[in-house]
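Quick start: what a row looks like.
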Amino acid sequence: HPPPPDMRERFSAYHDALVEAGLGPRPEDYFPSSNNVEDGGEESATAFLQQSERPTAVVVATDLNALGFMRTVIAAGLNVPRDVAVIGYDDIEAGAFSTPPLASVNQRFDTIGALAARLLLAQIRGEAPSADTHAPPSHVVPRASCGCRSLDDRAPGPAGSMGDDAREVLRGRLESAMVTAANGACIRQSVATAVAAIFEVTEHLLHTAHEHTPERLVEALTPLAALVTRPEVLQVVDTAVNLYLQTVADHLPDEARTARAALAQVGAQASSVLWHMQTVSYLDRVDGLEAALIEEHEIGRALLRHGTADPRRLGWLAGSHVRTAVLALWRGDELVIEGVRDADGILGDLTGTVTTPEAFPPLTVVRSTDPSAREVVFVIAVRANNRDWGMLAVVDTINETSGREPFSHWAALLCAAFEQEALAATLRTSEERYGLLARAMNEGLWEWDGASGRFTLSERCVALLGIDPAVADPGEAWTARVHPDDTENIRAQFGRVARGELSLVEVEHRYRRAPDAEYRWMLARAMPVHHDGRAAPMLLGSITDIDDRKQLEETLRHNALYDAATGLPNRRMFLAELTRSVERWVVERTPFAVVFLDLDRFKVVNDSLGHQAGDLLLQEVAERLLGALRAHDTAARFGGDEFAVLLDDIGPDDVPTVVQRIQDALARPVEIDGHALWVTASMGVASSAIDYTSAEDVLRDADTAMYHAKSQEPGTLSFFDTAMHDDAVRHVHLQAAVQAALDLGQFVVHYQPIVDLVAGRVDRFEALVRWQHPERGLIGPDEFLPLMQETALIVRLGRWIIGEVCRQIAAWSAVHDGVVNVSVNVSDREFWHLGLVHHVLACLAANDLSADNLTLEITEGVIMRRPEIARHIMDEMHAAGLRLHIDDFGAGHSSLQTLHHYPVEALKIDRAFISGVTEGVQSLELVRAIIAMADALGLEVIAEGIETTDQLAVLRALGCGSGQGFLFDRAVTGDRAAVLLGGSFATDLDLTPDNLVVNSLWAPTSTSAGERQR
């Protein structure tokens, strides 16, 4: 595995030292390990032993690796250090007691932690530690494994060195060992006191020749033993004291054998005292570890035991040595203190306090520590599995004698408790939801054990199936009530699951709870359950009553294929039947025909009598269609007022007979809510006489024929031919061309003068649109307006015309005195479109025009569609100052009495009446009546389509004030209209009552129907 950074640093330093010493490392002398503990060292030793030329010295990354290495090579017969010298890193206690004792580099983690703390404190004080890498001091601890001389092998000082020199050597050795062991703590005074006491005991022994008392030696060594916490340091202290005594003995005269013996006894007693104290210390540590293990066990039980108190409240710390602790957990984006352990009652009420990671733990917790007792606050992140739960703060003492730190383990246990709690809550919720879902889904559960053959049903399953719970074989009782046609299938499908062929099966079947009950649809599910070492299968499954769903599916299927209002097949089903007929025609040449019907004026019935009456009419039409057809024919409703009939296996000569029966059946009046309604239908027929291969093509052509019939005369019949198809294609192409013409600005406005029939003056016009086609030239409106009126294009065209007219009026007004007025026709769609008045006023304002510059012409038919709403719209127009004229008056169904309630200024008599004033009495009298009644109501009358002087004479005689037509001029361009504006036809016409002749005015004697169109 990749080594941690400190291991890599150690290897790099060792590598560099070898290079610096001229001992270039060889790759074959590198023995990797999979970890940093003893078994990793054993792996390296195994590789080492396989080398034919082995190194004579090994430096190992950690002491634990080194201990494993030594144990393996010694077991293989090698001698350490004679065959191979070993040195490790970290100077752990186990190394001091190994055989042989392990030489090591003293670079302990606690010294690194102390260095990090000193750097942090310096930064807090405002100092600026360098950004370089900081390393604590380290030194080699020589022991037997490396073959180097240890303190035991060092020669005593030079002969004759006594007195203060020996004492200073002892003091130096003790200070060196103990200052290192105490991590730099100031203990020099304790060392000096101990050295003085040892010197006093030695001097007393030499001068009195009496045996010293062990109590005095214990008293001298106790201060040192109390400061020694590690056995390797104790060994150094023991060695230093004995070397001192050996030095004193070596300087005694030869005859002082008794004194030498006494000094040797003192050394042995000193070693005994020191090691006895260390043994007591070890026993204390063992007791402490045992207590800690018990505490860990109890805390683990308290945190992980199900059903105990909330772990957030820290009640699990009640039996521990910890007296102060605080737990803060995340609630969304807030860190909230959830639990407090305050055995001494000094923290106050912190529960529920909102804090931040920077402000945690609270100052009261920090101030509760006792520095003299080496107490600090440990802060541990409560985090696991990529989830940050919060933070735990614990007050405890520093214990550098052990690498054990329980608080991270507590935090991990807390995370486990929280996760267990969340999992339990999720499980409870899941079980509750499953229970509710099972009840809501009307579902029962079952289990079948293939080994024992036992079939187990849940209570809900028993209730669904109606089986006696005490029956011997519930499974057989279940299948016995399955519909005979479904029994074999359900057995076969369950067998496939049991054999492992399927991982899940769902079988719909019919089932009845009792012999006299009706069958209901049920859904059975089954899946296998696999157990290790189990050969026989086991199935788990469910049973659900789906009868309501099946009924709904049947209803939906029926609704998907049949019309809800009439019960006839809909377009989808009709198309499927027609497809089969087309296929029979292609294969067997069985003829067919399709009749497409569209009811005439059905919208009038809906709007006047209501939708309920409309539905009753549709149902009556459906019944009459069925009554007129043969048994194997199909009638369908496509929606709205459209019907279709499929005549199957019928020759072309027989189609008119069936169609006539349909027309006769529909011709009879329909009685609905006391109203007698006469129904006609426009029909189009497409038959297999045209060699069809697609059902959609047949429907398309029948529809085309129907629209052809309706356009010629509603209530008639048309048979499809190729010419109709060509017209339909041209219609589509024309629609695309008109759309493009709008986008490219190919439409232009021409202006036909409206003449004062008394004075002959021209000061107003009617705006008429033309299409300036790039190839065909100027196209009249009769070719494109009907198409545009079918779509929203007419609204867009009308808006453009109003804007263009306002621009032209502004240009004329700049050079013409007086008010210029232009009439603009408003189409049906445009009138009812939102924003018409706003658009008109905006165009006027954009060209600095007033409302009296524009007149809006509206036909009777538009107004009579929705009279009340139309009056509201026209009132809004009139209030804005716009002039309103009724166009084509006389061609609609309104009356002067009705129009009297609308804010109009003039009536424009339809050209059909004007053309007849010189040809028959009826038209003449009708025009006379219109003019008389309009005059009585204060309305102006404008005659449209004046083409002859005779017509002009009659109109003047009847009192008609204004008119327009080819007699005066056709619709002209804006430039030509500017010439006519303000002019008079008085010089061109003799307008005296007895002499009406045309002198120079161009006036054709006849016009085509196309020229009369707007």
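That is the whole record. The two ends are 93 Å apart (CA to CA). Residues 257-304 form the longest helix (48 residues).
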